[in-house]
């Protein structure tokens, strides 16, 4: 299917009669066919309504501005918060990595295989570990040493690159550095992290060591948006794998990394497909 | 939430512009709010379109006939196949059981717990095994001995009961008897069976024995609609569980029965919630 | 297989050369064949060694005292901690229940199906909810109202019953009352609880409410031995199920209860089969 | 842990009293400590007995010949089939690949991460697709075009390479070519294949197409030893993933490849650790 004639529309507003009728009639009258639709309401009478549509139309990509302008009155009528994504404009993703390149590698291979609908203009890392693999994809690799004492300078350099490359999404692929509130504020709900535990269990550092000490029988991973509260951001996806008494901390790390790469990949994929909406520090995921 | 003011609408037709607009505008004008919506198209330009809506409205249950009549012209315009379910009218389910009552028990307990939105006016069995449990729920239990030599007579008695009790759905909870094409024809896509394997592996009798002989590492279960071709009907749900070389046929049966009860429960639940549409011997399941 | 001629031997001691040789030679010389064997060592040179054997022999059940006496010198040589279980003597299990009978019911049905190798001489509950189902199995049902103000008196009555019925294992099947340290001390590693979360996430009361607030994408359950620290005892088994943004607290409870019944059943089954050894507030589970 | 002082012993024989005693006493007297032990018997009185031991001893690697010679009388006494693996001698694995490199890549990365205890002296492929990744690991890449018309010549070249490089295990990482019985006979239970379905469902070509046509709700993968009967060899490992009505054949392929890489990795890992024993066209997997 040719996706260049497609767009996605995300809408949220107070739930009330007539929303779907108004939007679908608008789209019909503007020559756009609805090919996917998901909706959710926190409560049909007084709650908040969320809608995700994928639409398709002849030469839709040429009508982007026209459609957006024409939609404004519909949006105003229901006091909508709304966002259009036209698929001929790919989102631009920066990956932040560090020493462990398992997640970085997975994202690059899934992207190469056509499973992540994005451009990846650069990778930033505080280690050289990922350079060879990243450059083999023709992607620039920026090595910026980082530690907590030079956080501000490091972030200044990073922000400059992110702006230069017009980045829409930052993926922390086991980046392991804490970001300042100022940095996070620049990309609200646009930074995805992978935490190597089943949150909220084992918040913070060394989750596999803590998991081993507690003697859990499953270990997990969580992909979530980054907020100012460490490991407290809205959860996008989680998964687990089975371990037993024979597994030492090192074994948990190895097995955990295979869960992490999948959980991060899914979170990033769904974000890029505009399936994830943040509401009340939680996510609505339209799958 | 009070579900008596709710209805579900299932629609399918050739995909074409304006369907959602027409339906949602119709509903809006008739005072019905859309609270759930799922759609699927086999192809946006020439394929078949499927829609499931849950709607809510003040005193909706009193407007059943009015709404159905008013909807007819919309349906005609797009040559729709359509079905209304008003939630104040519960579907009526008959359970067919035999000796192994694990699935029967699960359905009754899930029903008691409010997880199956149906009435269960009777249970029919060719064994006495389930009588005590069924009657403890105040449900009539009909013991009708059955075997392949008396199939026609047995089915005649069963059909009489099903008609007397105005049954909408028949669940074969490990009933183990083959139904004649004549019987199946009376309830198209309204008979759900549980097969004790991951279909299409191990079609037919003794799947656990075959699974043991083949040395599989997972065993499964499949809930599906009954058609004339044994074990070939549209699959609604499947799941699996892990086994190993130590498990004998008896162990597979025991472990399998825990998978079966869950897979059958899900299939029945989704059918009762009008989430399952049969198309081309496959199911669309709107979850 | 006739299990009455079988016994299980659990051994732990400092790891050192010759243990398996000594034990297996002892068994061979005493006419007992090893039919299952599992071992684990925290470290082969200086760690702790754990062994579980299932043995079989002609008229083994008649040689119980003789074998135990003869084994003493072997045990002494390696300063073993050891425990024999002769299968002709079933363990005796008391189930403590409350209002939600899902776990209670599962244990009774698994027991009826031959999957829990135990006698169940009584059920104690602070609600009448389970009486009918329990008595239908011919098991005495003791209704003992309980709350935190009368904890001591309640436990005194319970302990009296447990001693009268010679109970080896107590299963808290969603009992929901906290036990005093004095009670717990009477049954060390012999009280199994089911916690309705994936521990250590959501310790304490209302885990489903907390899970809903945090917006997790999986919910879990944990069976563990009860110690003085609430929800901190050694974990036997855990499992999870998938949820999404549409699930309210009530939905999590319903879906959670299906995970809980399975996780509790497995924990109890493994304990009864002497597969679980507590070490260092964790469990070794020989599956 | 230093594994060079370790060895594994696999034994099978008719079950009879005294086997474990004889072996463990032999090991104790020869200064070898048992650090892992697994056993299985098809029947304790007349069946076949299987044992896997991991042993450790000072300078064990220098006593290889001595130990093997000394063990012979013990083996003879019980008419054992037996195999020693001394861990200082790594098994040598050849990977056969083709166009889809997902499985090839996974094996190389797991190997790089220390999770596959083997040498990989070469990769053979009938496509150039994997050359860059393979050579980046310093592993020779042999491109040998293959199709069914030149099977004999191709296999002659392959066998020459396998013998030159002294290969112990061949992994077909989506190699997609059928091997002749003559080739298979050279490596009995030493060729592991990944089949892209949950066997025995969808035997043969195009399993994802068949799965799509049947409308299954889970797709799977199977790693198995290659025998003369296509897709009928002993199953080592299987796993599945969830799909739905929206997934087309291409989607099943993409999702399937993530299951395949894991299922093949596990099968290869377990084989390399001598955890897999073939018996009666099934596997005993000691995990």
Short description:
The structure is a homotetramer of 287-residue chains. Chain A has 287 residues and is α/β, with parallel strands linked by helices. In chain A, 33% of the residues lie in helices and 30% in strands.
If you had to describe this structure to a student in words, what would you say it looks like?
- The structure is a homotetramer of 287-residue chains.
- With 287 residues, chain A is an alpha/beta fold.
- Chain A folds into two domains: 3-86, Alpha-Beta Plaits (2-Layer Sandwich); 92-285, Formyl transferase, N-terminal domain (Rossmann fold, 3-Layer(aba) Sandwich), CATH 3.40.50.170.
- In chain A, 33% of the residues lie in helices and 30% in strands.
- Chain A has eight helices and 13 strands.
- The first copy, chain A, has helices at residues 19-29, 64-77, 102-112, 131-136, 151-164, 181-186, 207-214, 249-272; strands spanning 6-14, 33-41, 48-56, 81-86, 91-97, 118-125, 141-143, 169-173, 191-195, 218-225, 235-242, 276-279, 282-285.
- In chain A, the strands form three sheets. In chain A, strands 7-6-5-8-9-10-11 form a seven-stranded mixed beta sheet.
- In chain A, helix 3 (102-112) runs parallel beside helix 8 (249-272) and helix 7 packs across helix 8 (249-272).
- The first copy, chain A, starts with 5 loop residues before the first strand and ends with a strand.
- The interface between A and C is medium-sized, with 28 and 28 residues.
């Amino acid at each position: 299917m040719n996706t260049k004639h497609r767009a996605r529309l995300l809408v949220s507003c107070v739930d009330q009669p007539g929303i779907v009728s108004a939007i679908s009639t608008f789209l019909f009258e503007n020559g756009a066919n609805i090919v996917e639709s998901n909706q959710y309401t926190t409560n049909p009478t007084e709650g908040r309504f969320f809608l995700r549509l994928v639409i398709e139309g002849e030469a839709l990509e040429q009508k982007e501005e026209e459609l957006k302008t024409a939609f404004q009155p519909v949006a105003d009528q229901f006091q909508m918060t709304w966002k259009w994504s036209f698929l001929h404009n790919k989102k631009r993703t920066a990956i932040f990595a560090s020493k462990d390149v398992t997640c970085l590698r997975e994202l690059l291979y899934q992207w190469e295989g056509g499973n992540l609908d994005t451009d990846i203009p650069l990778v930033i890392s505080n280690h050289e570990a990922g350079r060879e693999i990243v450059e083999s994809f023709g992607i620039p690799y920026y090595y910026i040493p980082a530690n907590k004492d030079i956080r501000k300078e490091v972030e200044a350099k990073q922000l400059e690159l992110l702006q230069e490359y017009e980045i829409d999404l930052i993926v922390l692929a086991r980046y392991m550095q804490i970001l300042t509130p100022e940095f996070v504020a620049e990309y609200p709900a646009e930074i995805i992290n992978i935490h190597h535990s089943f949150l909220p269990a084992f918040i913070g550092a060394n989750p596999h060591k803590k998991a081993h000490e507690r003697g859990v029988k499953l270990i997990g991973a969580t992909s979530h948006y980054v907020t100012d509260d460490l490991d407290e951001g809205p959860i996008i996806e989680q998964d687990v794998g089975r371990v037993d008494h024979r597994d030492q901390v090192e074994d948990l790390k190895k097995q955990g990394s295979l869960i992490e790469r999948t959980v991060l990949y899914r979170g990033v994929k769904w974000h890029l497909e505009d399936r994830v909406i943040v509401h009340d520090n939680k996510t609505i995921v339209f799958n």
